[in-house]
Amino acid sequence: MPSPYNLALVEHCSQCSQRQTNGGFCNMAAEPVEALDSMKFTGAYPKGALLFVEGEQPRGVFVLCRGRAKLTTTSTEGRTLIVKIASPGEILGVSAAILGRPYEVSAETLEASQVSFIRRDDFLHFLNAYSEACMHTAQQLSEKYESAQREIRSLGLAHTTSEKLARLLLSWSASGEETPQGTRLQVLLTHEEIGQMIGTTRETVTRLLSEFKRKKLISMKGSSLFLLSTGEMREMVST
Amino acid sequence: MSRSIIETNLADRETLLRLPAGETLFREGETPRGVYVLHSGTVDLLFSAKNGSAKPLREAQPGQILGLSCVVTQRPHDCTATAAEPCEVAFIERDDFLRALDDSPAVWFSVLRVLSSEVNAVYDDIRTMAAR
Predict the structure, then answer these.
(1) Domains (ranges, CATH) in chain A?
(2) Does A204 reach chain B within 8 Å, measured CB to CB?
């Protein structure tokens, strides 16, 4: 059946097979899932769609059902920084919706994605009705807190840029696929976006990746990146 | 304000601790046993670099709840908390804490507000740190 952006859209949370496996916000008992189903609006978005922007008054929260999205903020000197890459099962815009304050970050899809929107009032009533929803929201907030904390550590410690890049690639290797050619990483980010994750320019990322290639730490094929020697790369990371 | 709702609801479940300056509440990597509500004094939150040196992360002020996110996710403490001066801290065990939340949506909501503010505070830190 044809569908927007060839996404296998699932209309009802109760019928979503990914709900149980993604360990995310929506992995709840039947009753709250039914409530979630009745108040959410689900839709398909192309790559590069903005779900909400930093500074905007909170309209509601967004559950990422399928696909990936980057969360960005702007530094005090105007640089764009990626604070997190969100994956399926994550709920976005929560702290703003709970506090009733403007969104702290912008959310933009990195690939065609299915996203479910819940209006702010509906979401607050949902939290009030189900303590399981509160627990899952608390876990989502804590997870965002911890990943932002990790970002601070890597910005705060005196790392060289090549060390930061090595650290980023190693963090991706956890979800990579082992192949005879090495650990295969699916890189959805452009060099510019990688730069925004580690606080450097596109040019530096391109230069460092060629350097890693020359040192036989990585190899590249299309949008795949292979880690050839995770051991050597770990040695580059000091903390 | 939201913190006082939490503090009143937890009052009968807490154990009061008096810490001299320099005493450690919990260490990075330890499994969280519960949450700590700081009543008075300041607590330094530190994380360790691989070379063993401790780096300051932030300073906790009275009213703040420590260990909240780790108790919710059941992950090890991500920093070490040490009293910077004599402190009064209320400790609430994890199970007691979660039970108190399930008894009252209002307390749950206050906890979500605290967590939300913490998330926003870290994003603020990222914005200023990246500018350095």
Answers:
(1) 4-156 (2.60.120.10), 161-236 (1.10.10.10)
(2) no
Tell which B residues from 72 to 111 touch A, by Cβ distance under 8 Å.
72-73, 75, 78, 101-102, 105, 108-109, 111
In CATH, which of 3.40.50.1110, 3.90.1170.40, 2.60.120.10, 2.160.10.10 is domain B2-126?
2.60.120.10
Order of strands across the sheet that contains A224-227: A177-179, A182-186, A224-227, A218-221
Residue A194 dihedral angles phi and psi, to the nearest 5°: -60, -40
Give B29's contacts in chain A (Cβ within 8 Å): none
The predicted-structure confidence for B42-60, as pLDDT tens digits, reads as follows 999 988 766 667 777 788 8
Q: Are A212 and A161 in contact (CB under 8 A)?
A: no
Pairing between strand A50-52 and A106-109?
A: antiparallel
* pLDDT tens digits, one per residue of A169-185: 988 888 888 998 889 99
Look up the ipTM and state it.
Answer: 0.86
Q: Phi first, then psi: what are they for B125, rounded to 5°?
A: -60, -40
The model carries a pTM of 0.88
Give the β-pairing of B34-40 and B87-93.
antiparallel
Tokens of residue A149, six digits: 């904390």
Mean pLDDT within A88-107: 96
